[in-house]
Amino acid sequence: MRYFILTAILFLSIMAQGQSKPQQIEGDLSIDGNKRSFLTYIPPGTKNDKLPLVISLHGGFASPKGMFHLADFRPVADREKFIVVCPASKHIWHDGANLHGIDDVKFIDQLITYIIKTYNADPARVYVTGISNGGFMTARLACQLNTRIAAVAIVAATLDIGEGYDLERPMPALYMHGTSDPIVGYNGGKLFGRSVYSQDAVIDKWVALNNCDKTPLVTTVPDAANDGTSIIKEEYINPGNGLKVVGYTVINGGHTWPGGWQYLPKFIIGKTTQNLNACEEIWGFFKGYKLHVKS
Predict the structure, then answer these.
(1) pLDDT tens digit string along 190-237?
(2) Dihedral sign computed on CA atoms, order 51, 109, 175, 246
(3) Containing H/E element for 127?
(4) Which residues, listed in sequence order, are joined to residue 219 by a DSSP beta bridge?
(5) I want to staple 274 with a disulfide (CB 3.0 to 4.6 A). Which of 32, 148, 225, 253 is the partner?
(6) How far apart are CA 91 and CA 62, in angstroms?
(7) What average pLDDT score do residues 132-160 get?
(8) If DSSP codes are grouped into helix, strand and coil, which group holds residue 286?
(9) pLDDT band at 100 (very low <50, low <70, confident <90, very high)
(10) CA–CA separation, 54 vs 75, rounded Å?
(11) How many contiguous H segments (helices) and E segments (strands) does the chain have?
(12) How far apart, in whole angstroms, are the C-alpha atoms of residue 93 and residue 195?
């Protein structure tokens, strides 16, 4: 009898461990005849739970695996219990007027529906973040999928000007941008033949749309990592409804993910600050917001 009990305990323990293991799952959808792929990360110990969803968009010509490596939300997701999805673009995200037959807004819209139905994600807690080309795509989604997304966070990008869409609906928004970004200039201007807002200008647009106080709460983060960078955080708040617009200026920072790895040499992309963990900061911002979704 003792042997039977010990065997049963061991079996149940193994089963419980199997159910609690994290999962990274490859998936795909067909959008207008185009196969669209994505990687989904499910944290351990969340069976049957209705979890928040963070969609993380890679930069141009990158990949979902590369985004998981650069912006690794998985340790945060394990602790805080949320799903992470890294979708794949068709070489680039089509954040401009010319889609070239690739409708990325439709893809992300249907991806959200798929994750909600397949993994029981919470439709009221869907968040999107991205870097560079993925950051500009995040901004487009904030304009055109604003009834499905609770908050956005944009790194090393701002918002396109004159591409047929603009900010329309109040939403919590966070931006992180390096002052020495050699690819997407902190001060905006021309980018691959298009015009983009500066970090200050796009934050001003969000502050006006969200009806936030125009005087921010300012926090400085010194160069504790001794890597030649520092951080200025400006937080604008609507005192009536709690909506925030947060801007992080990375002094001497490059075209990089704060707290990530130096994916190319500094003389090409600039410095990666280690004085800020973007994944932690972004999730800390996201988790305070949810949509009012009709049941």
Answers:
(1) 998 899 999 999 999 999 999 999 999 999 999 999 999 999 999 999
(2) negative
(3) strand 121-131
(4) 233
(5) 225
(6) 7
(7) 98
(8) helix
(9) confident
(10) 13
(11) 8, 13
(12) 17
Tokens representing residue 207 in the block: 């502050």
Hey, what are 268's tokens?
Answer: 């090409």
Query: Is the confidence at residue 34, as pLDDT, over 70?
Result: yes
- pTM above 0.85? yes
Cα–Cα distance for residue pair 154/156, rounded to 1 Å: 7
The closest of 7, 49, 38, 42 to 21, measured between CA atoms, is 42
Could you tell me if 93 and 57 are in contact, meaning their C-beta atoms sit under 8 angstroms apart? yes
Buried-exposed string 240-262: b where 16+ CB fall within 10 A, e elsewhere: eeebbbbbbbbbebbbbbbbbee
CB 206 within 8 A of CB 143: no
Contact 249/179 with Cβ under 8 angstroms? yes
Distance CA 77, CA 119 (A): 15
Q: Which residue has the tokens 């980018």?
A: 191
* DSSP helix/strand/coil, 278: helix
CA 123/CA 115 separation, integer angstroms: 9
Indicate the DSSP class of residue 260.
S
As beta bridge partners, residue 230 has 251
Q: Which of 90, 202, 220, 214 is nearest to 153 (CA)?
A: 202
Task: Estimate to the nearest angstrom the gap between the alpha carbon of 283 and the chain centroid.
Answer: 9
